[in-house]
Amino acid sequence: MALRNVSRLFPTHKSRFQPMLRDWVRTQCICSLAHAQTRAVTRENHEVTPPEVVQRPRYRRSYEISNEVCSGEQSSNTVNRNVILYSVLAFSFFSNSEEDEAKKTEDEIIMLLKRAKLSMMRDELDAASGYLHQAIRLAHQSHNNQAIIYTYSLMANLAFIQGQLTNAEKLFKAAMSFLLSGGAPQDDNAVIEMSLKLATIYATQNRHELADHGFRFCMESLEAKIEKQKDLPADAIPDEERKDTKLLLGLCLDSRARYSTAMHRFEQAKGDYQRALKICREEQGEAHPQTLVLMNDLATVLDMQGHHDEALGQVKKAVELGKEAGHPDQHVLLGNMAGILLHQGQLEESARLYQVALAMAQANGDSEAVEQIKEGLKELDDKKNEQTDKA
Fold this sequence. Notes:
Blueprint: E1 6-8, H1 17-30, H2 33-42, E2 59-61, H3 76-84, H4 100-121, H5 125-141, H6 145-161, H7 165-181, H8 189-204, H9 208-230, H10 239-262, H11 266-284, H12 289-304, H13 308-325, H14 330-344, H15 347-363, H16 367-390
Family: Belongs to the TTC19 family.
Main location: mitochondrion
Pfam families: TPR_12 (PF13424)
């Protein structure tokens, strides 16, 4: 599992935080589910065929409720379906020793899931739901817990993107119940990922006590797990599993930080971003796209706290690294830097960077970023007019 490659263009007005939170929850709910499912279905050493590769899109936090979370050349709905189905299908639910009837059922389940995948990519959500309901019925009839867990997880994500939050919650809980009854410990990474998705659902429903408890459970479980792993021999756990656990902790910290920002808990958000950034640097590298995103988000929180110099230092470094690495969302980083300069009162430099960012966003066809940069330019003009009136 890896931290999501997400670039966020933050609003300049705190009143826009609530739409930000709702759309962030969409992102969080669908991110990295494939990894949890893959680990769940391989736990009992069933043969796994390499999954179909789907290019993982980049994300940007959106501030319009009606927008989906993904941007890029494809429509946002199509990209969302691709992310959800990143490693869908193409694995065997049964061992070779099963009878022919079991193999026939297996083939039917896989075919239904393939049809569901195609329907979701075409944005035919009702058809996808129908195929998934047929698949879950067959999975229950064949008493295949792995197929049940996998299908319930897909159904939960489908329910979420349809806005059926209560149904999504029930489905995630059902998948988690089967996972735990199959012997998975409570600190299993797949269990933690599903718990994190539940926390994001509670957050968007304004069930803040449950959201806070969910985020805390995820982080405390992972922190204890990492501590225990330190005492084990180096070869006791694969390096990849150790890395996955640390990155999952980073994802939890990042998620709570964004939730805390939306709730105006800026000090907690700052601490979580700093810890997430440290993990990402250690595991992914200084110039990794997610590292730059976290630097950018930390800068935004610092700016909101009035620490403009520190914020500018963070975002400047992100911009420099992004330029060297060819970050695909460099215009987003530049737009955020322009906003921080605006708050510092450096209006001319802010205007220059906004124009550079706007040109890049337009060249990239990034309409969301274009809209938000224009809002920044409007705020800049208002600030200039203010100064003129005072003079």
